[in-house]
Amino acid sequence: MAKGNVLMVCLGNICRSPLAHGIFEQLSKEFSITVDSAGTASYHIGSSPDPRSIKTAMKHGIDISNQRARQFTKSDFDAFDHIFVMDRQNLRDVLKLSQLEVERNKVKLLLKNEEVEDPYYGGDEGFEIVFNKIEKASKDILDLWKQ
Ligand code: 4NP
Fold first, then answer.
1. Domain residue ranges of the chain, discontinuous segments joined by +
2. Which amino acid residue places its CA nearest to atom 13 of ligand 1?
3. What is the CATH number of domain 6-146?
């Protein structure tokens, strides 16, 4: 997998993908790439990340409080080289908007054959689990880029 601009995608763009955005941005500082995040749904457009995501990121030294939620659009297929989704529903929703094979090839689950489950309805510990899964997956991707 070649290095390139990365878009992290979940449903609301307030819990999982803001964490993924912040983590990947922090870990990829040595590369001149754009990292962003978006949601497949429109419910939370303009909102700050969920306070539990902000708190969890801050605990690990990453400030995501300036992020604002936006919805995924077809133009993201042009702007980004890698579109990493958190779960299989996100995968279906993003692929539904694609028109070309080259666009579909950019879309992958962030974790290999595993989902980053939605922590929205659970407690704080769910956010820590999400953080750790995303951090591990991000390091694996960046290790490939460094080879
Ligand atoms: P996210 O979590 O997709 O990780 O941002 C969710 C946030 C909000 C809702 C669902 C999931 N919601 O139903 O409002």
1. 6-146
2. 12
3. 3.40.50.2300
